[in-house]
Amino acid sequence: MKPVRIISRIDIKGPNLVKGIQFDGNRALGKAEDFAYLYYKEGSDELIFYDTVASLYQRNNLLEFVTAVSRHIFVPLTVAGGIRTIDDVQHILRAGADKVAINTAAIHNKNLIAEAAKAFGSQCIVVGIEAKHRDEGWWEAWVDYGREPTGINVIEWAKEAVDLGAGEILLTSIDFEGTGHGFDIELTARIAREVSVPVIASGGAGIKEHVENVIQHGRADAVAVAGMFHYYYAQPLTRRYSASDEIGLRMGRQIDEGNVDFLNLRYGGLFEKRFKAISITGLKGYLNSRGIRCRDL
User: Fold this and answer.
1) Which of 138, 163, 183, 247 has the fewest CB atoms lying closer than 10 Å?
2) Closest CA to 69 of 53, 42, 48, 87
3) What sign has the CA pseudo-torsion 20, 22, 24, 25?
4) Above 60 in pLDDT, residue 6?
5) Residue 29: enclosing H or E segment and its boundaries?
6) What's the rounded mean pLDDT across residues 103-121?
7) What values do phi and psi take at 233, rounded to 5?
8) Alpha helix (H) residue ranges in the chain
9) What percent of the chain has pLDDT over 70?
10) What is the pLDDT of residue 30?
11) 110 neighbors 164 (Cβ within 8 angstroms)
């Protein structure tokens, strides 16, 4: 069994790391660059940066961000959101990313996957899939950061994307994302059985057992975690490393919306909080104790 990758997912709006539920109601937690550096130092195997408004505005705004963080973060970096052309892929990779994740543009122009894989190698090309459950055994692919339905069958689309040259699938359940209720195990397992490339499970981790389950029963090759890590490292008065200086990763002058309390207090009354915060090393240690190989702590 290959070691399972534990990936930190950082959704970004402007300079901030943001978190919400089912791609909606995002609230800022702190400066994304500081969280990225912290997660690297704490042992994350990879980082995923997701520009949350890129597809909406038809551009990716993370070039400067990636250029800055890649100077002091030395694990694979994947950039998602608003990547529409071969030139976009090239610019992101030149800025310091190791991979790009394409969703909206890949569905609208399937040749983009093949062209990008040919130009840069399949190992650089991740196809992001945002899935919403519709009927028994059927999930629909959505685009534009979970804003628009496509009518496309997720499982068939995953197989086609791999045939076109995708080197990985980043699978996010819209139904489970941000809820802390766990992953969509059935969907993850179905896609993992159908494709020959690694599947990254994303959306829903609330407790460490959820990560174990999506690996053991969902056959995920990697797991992207957001909320569990964010809650651990953004606790009030906690001071951790940053790229420049030691700072508190919570409310500060760089925050332009929302706050940590919104996330800690039942999402403003919409959902009961179901997250049990954990560190990256704590999660890896737990998985190792359950017989799941992780990369070195």
Assistant:
1) 138
2) 48
3) negative
4) yes
5) strand 24-31
6) 95
7) -85, -10
8) 32-42, 54-57, 63-69, 86-95, 104-108, 111-120, 154-164, 185-194, 208-216, 227-233, 260-264, 266-269, 280-289
9) 82
10) 79
11) yes
Token pair for residue 113? 């996957």
* Assigned token pair, 39: 């997660």
Tell me yes or no: is domain 5-289 CATH 3.20.20.70. yes
What are φ and ψ of residue 186, in 5° steps?
-60, -45
Token digits for 161? 């994307």
User: Residue 135 pLDDT > 70, yes or no?
Assistant: yes
Q: Tell me the catalytic residues.
A: 11, 130
pLDDT at position 201 is 97
* Cβ contacts of 296 within 8 Å, gap of 6 or more: none
> Both tokens of residue 98?
């190791």
8 Å CB contact between 3 and 127: no
Amino acid at 297: L
260: pLDDT strictly greater than 70: no
The pTM for the full model equals 0.87
Q: What is the DSSP letter of 274?
A: -
How remote is the C-alpha of 13 from its chain's centroid? 14
Indicate the pLDDT class of residue 297, thresholds 50, 70 and 90.
Answer: low
Reported as a single tens digit per residue, the pLDDT across 221-252 is 999 999 889 878 875 433 444 444 433 344 33
Average per-residue pLDDT for the chain: 85
CA 198, CA 195: separation in Å to the nearest integer?
8
How far apart (Å, rounded) are the C-alpha atoms in residues 248 and 50? Answer: 23
Identify the burial level of 25 via C-beta atoms within 10 angstroms of its C-beta, where 0-12 means exposed, 13-18 middle and 19 or more buried. Answer: middle
**How far, in Å, are 3, 50, 51, 185, 215 from residue 101 at the CA level?**
22, 9, 11, 22, 21
Please name which of 182, 174, 220 lies closest in space to residue 204, comparing C-alpha atoms: 182
Q: What is the DSSP letter of 2?
A: P
